[in-house]
Amino acid sequence: MRILCFKKLFFMVFFLFLLSVSTAFSRTRTLFRLTLSDAVLLAMRFNTNVQSEDLQRLIDRMTLATAEWGYGIQYSLTATVSYNRPVSAGVPTYSENDSIVPGATLLTPIGTQLSVQMTNPVTNGTGTGRSYNPSVTFSLTQPLLRGAGPSIALAPLYQARNNETINKLTYKNNLMTTVTAVVNAWLSYILAENSLKAQKISLKSSIKTLEQQEAFLKVGRIAPTDLIQFKASVASQRLSLSQQEVSLGQQKRALLITLGLNPDMPVEISDEINFPGPSAPPPLGECIKATFANNIPYQQSLINLKNTEISLHVTEDSARWQLNLTAARTQGPGPNPGLIQLTNGRYSDTTYALSLSIPIDDVGLNNTVSQARISLHQQKIALEQNRLQLKSTVINAWNTVISQREQIKQANEAVRLAKNSLDIAETKLRFGKVTPFEVSTLQTNLLTQQLSAINVQISYFDNLATLDQTIGTTLERWKLEFRPDPGISQAMDKADPELPTVPHEMISDIKEIKLTGS
Predict the structure, then answer these.
(1) Which H or E run includes 82?
(2) H-helix segments, 431-487
(3) Side-chain-facing half-sphere of 164: CA atoms under 13 Å
(4) Whole-number Å distance between alpha carbons of 307 and 164
(5) Strand ranges (E), 258-367
(6) Entry pTM
(7) Helix (H) or strand (E) holding 190
(8) What is the pLDDT of residues 197-206, one digit of tens each?
(9) DSSP type of residue 515
(10) Distances (CA, A) of 364 to 12, 285, 320, 376
């Protein structure tokens, strides 16, 4: 019994020792600082939408391969084996029939349907013996009116290839949307951190005011009831600060989820906003030109219009007369068994035929053609409306970005003037020309102007990311290569494909926001 207790005590001490060692080891590890570029690369690998689209690309490519396979040689093989043993008047007989029928068909680009089929029957029965009597049938069907020509025969293949292009654009749009979502989530976190900083500054100023009012109360300059309002304001601001700290944690977890990472992963979010590429947008004319060349929804609308035109052409073809030429030749079988029946030319059957089908006053078919034509016309009108709306969207987004660039300059100028005012006040303070309270007010004003400048900068980069997605240059800005055909998660940065290693530590302090120029 003592030995058992000693073992329990030993294992408990050993467990506590390992726990203390692991805790000390975890505290000594360096916390990983996640930058915006790192976040974009991580999202390209771990974001669930990107992973789902990677898998969808496999299905899309198999769908196209299936459509192309339909215009190759199609092989078939059918085999049957039967055995029959009847008994009549006590006398048993038997019969055995075996057959292997290989075949092949081919649809040509002009609509010709070719087929070949070989039957290989083997019979065996009571009193007859085994017999093999094969035959080969060649057939050809060529449409001369309805269904003739590459534009009709290859219409499903053309539409399948157009759909594959749409699927590639969808995949690219998903990547750009993910990058934009990462940037927006990142900027939202910085904005929440900025708001927290502003509330801390406001609370600090309110506490100083409260302390002054308490001093006035001691010397009898204010009544006790006048202090209640200041205390209520400080309590309210502390509550708001606590709520903002919770909101900051929520923004961080939302960012990690956007990256496809565990929301509890211990990483430090960098407070620097570093956008790659030019900080200024291209000229308006280049933006409009790039939009019509690269905007994903607009390009998909153009391809869908092509598919609609193909469908209309097929529908109009279905209303034409149908005139088909059919030719068939069967070699064998003959009365004598063996492969000789296929080559001696003595037993064959040749058929030529023309078949004509004329639709007469087919109201339903005419209605289908009319609806297809109207649908195409409506789609062209919608595409033109989409073009005008897209141009307006680009112009508005470009003007917003340009306006915010000027606002950044003005905000930086306000920061510079606030800093100069503070420097002058600190100089006056040394000579007793101003009070410490006035200097404290100017310090608060400087921090407020700095935070306001960062808010303008955050809004600018947010709108710049939206403009990049509209004109279709998001991947180019972040130096991401678009490769829809290779395997999973191939849209990675060519210059730095290695992903950072994220350690497992939590961050508790809030870093000071840094103002970076545009």
Answers:
(1) strand 74-84
(2) 436-471, 474-477
(3) 19
(4) 12
(5) 268-269, 322-331, 348-357
(6) 0.78
(7) helix 155-218
(8) 877 877 787 7
(9) P
(10) 86, 49, 14, 19
